[in-house]
Amino acid sequence: CTRLVPGPRSERSSIVHAPGSRAAFGGALGYMLLGRISFSICSTGPALGREMEAKIPPPRVYLEIRNSTQNGHLVLGNFTKDHSELQITLGLSSMCLQSPAQRLTINLPAGVSVAPSSCRNLQYIAGDGLHMRLQVVTERPKDLAPTVVRTLKAQACYVFQCQSCGKSLLETQMFRRVLPLPNGDWNDLVDHWCCHPNPFARQFQPKLDDCFLGDTFLLVNAASVNRAAVCEERESGPETRQSAGDTEAQVKMPKDNITVVCARCRKMLGDKTSADTIKFYITELLVQPLTNDALERQINKRYFFVERVFAGRLMELSSTQSTFRFCIQGHDGNTYALLWLLNSDTLLVRSHKDPCSDFTAVVNDTVKNESSIQHCEAVNAVKILYHPCLKGRNKIAQEKWEKNIGVHCMTFPANTCLELLFILASSTASLPPSLQSMNTFKVAFLKLD
Questions:
Q1: H or E element in which residue 60 lies
Q2: φ/ψ (deg, to 5) at 317
C-alpha cells in the first residue's frame, strides 16, 4: 500500500510508505543547476542499526527533467529483498528515506526546489523501482557551448589538433575567409531548381587561407596542412551509380578513396576530395582558440568528445533546419544508425558513479558513516530514439528513411559511427528497463556538456 500525506505548512511534504517483499519507495529531486546533490546518512539504532546498515546499498536515482515544462520523472531503484519497509518524506529542497535501521537524506542544491504536492502517477514497476512525476522550480539553465561549425570565425587564431593524440595538423592558424557550405542535401534538389544541366557540378574548392564549413566537416586547402603531420592512404569503397536502362535501380561499384590519417596515431582524420582540397571531420579534430592565456591542450576522452559533438550538431541542425530525423552514414557508404531527436532540453540526473553502467545492477557498496557523502551528477542532454542498422538490421526502416527528403544524412568516419553505436547502446543500458524502448525504437541520451 502507499499513502501520501501533507507535512507542516512551512514545508509541505509527501510521504510514501510501501511495505513488500522488495523495497518500493519514492521521492523527488529537482533540476541540478550546480550538477550535484549530496547524500548524508545516520544510524537510528545501536548495534542492531549498525548491523543492518551494512546490508543497505545506496539507492539508484534516475531523474529526467524537461527544462521547457519543468516536469520531472523520477525513478528510485537498487533495493534488495532485505527491505521490508521504507518511508520517504519529500520536502521543498530535500528527500528523506527512513528505514527501521537508517535515515538517508538527499539535499538539493541552492536555487532548486520541488513542489511535493505535485507528485503524481506513483507506481512500482518490477525491475525498475518506484516511478513518479512531479513539478520542479529552477533557475534558467546556462547556455551551452556550440560546436566548431558554429564557433570558427575568420581573422581569428586557432590551434587544430588530432583529437586522439594532440598532433598539430594545420600550418595556418588564422583563416582569411570562413564560409558555410550549402546544406548537405542541396545537390539533390538542383533538378527541381534548374531546367538545364547542373551548373553546380564542380566541387567547392577552398583557396589558400580559406575554410569551408559543412554539416560534419571542414574543407581546407591542402597547402594549409602540415604535411609532416598527416599521411594519405588509398582504400577501396563502394560508389553508388544508377544502372543503365533502370532509373530506379542502383548498383555499387568499386571506388578508390584517399583517406587522410594522423602520422602519429594513424587515426583517420578525413578524406582528400581533390588534389588541392582536404576534408577534416569535426569528430576527429580538436579546435581551440589561440589566446594570450596559456593554451590548454588537454585531450578529452574519446567517447565523451564524440558524444558531445554528435549531440551538439543534432541540436544545431534541428534548430536551424527544422529537421529531427537523421541518417548516420559512414565514409564507406554504409548506413549505421537512424536517429530521431525527441527533445533537446533534457537535464539528466543520476546517482550511480558510472553513467554507462546497468541501471538494474545491484550495487554492493554500502553507505557507511565514514563515507556518508555521495554525489549525483546532472548533465544537459538530448533524448534520442534510434535504430541500429548493422548487419541488415531494420532494413525496411532504413530504406524508407533514405528515400525520405525530410531525413537529413550525416557522414562520419566508419569507426566513429561504430563508436556512436557503442555510446547509444551504453546509454540505453543505463536507463531503467521500462524506459529503454519506445514503440520499435531504442531510447538513449547524448550529453551536451
A1: strand 60-66
A2: -70, -40
Q: So what's the pLDDT on residue 60?
A: 80
Q: 2 near 122, Cβ under 8 Å?
A: yes
pLDDT value for 87: 76
Total number of residues shown for the chain: 449
Count, in order, helices (H) and strands (E) of the chain.
6, 24
Phi, psi for 291 (deg, rounded to 5): -115, 180
Residue 338's DSSP bridge partners are: 327, 387
Point out which residues pair with 242 in neighbouring strands. Answer: 250
Rounded to a whole number of angstroms, the distance between the first and last alpha carbons of the chain is: 40
Q: Which residues contact 93 (CB under 8 A, 6 or more apart)?
A: 30, 107, 108, 112, 113, 114
- What is the rounded radius of gyration, in angstroms, for the C-alpha atoms of the chain? 26
CA distances from 145 to 223, 262, 380 (A): 30, 27, 11
240, 207 Cβ separation under 8 angstroms:
no
Judged by DSSP in three states, 281 sits in strand
- The β-bridge partners of 113 are 137
Helices of type H across 4-137 = 47-53
Question: Do the strands 210-213 and 177-180 form a parallel or antiparallel pair, or are they unpaired?
Answer: parallel
Q: Residue 160: its pLDDT value, please?
A: 92
- In the three-class reduction of DSSP (H, G, I as helix; E, B as strand; rest coil), residue 35 is classed as coil
Which cell numbers in the block locate residue 176? Answer: 582569411
Residue 382 phi, psi (nearest 5): -105, 140
Output the pTM of the full model: 0.80
Residue 47, pLDDT score: 40
User: Of 416, 422, 423, whose CA–CA distance to 268 is shortest?
Assistant: 416
Per-residue pLDDT tens over the stretch 338-350: 999 999 988 887 7
Say what the pLDDT of residue 221 is: 94
Tell me, what's the pLDDT at 53? 45
Q: Per-residue pLDDT for 248 more than 70?
A: no
Q: Are 28 and 91 in contact (CB under 8 A)?
A: no
CB contact burial 7-24 (16+ within 10 A = b; e otherwise): beeeeebbbbbbeeeebb
Mean local confidence (pLDDT), 228-245: 67
352 by DSSP, 3-state: which?
A: coil
Per the DSSP assignment, residues forming a β-bridge with 339 are 326, 386
Residue 228 has pLDDT above 50, yes or no: yes
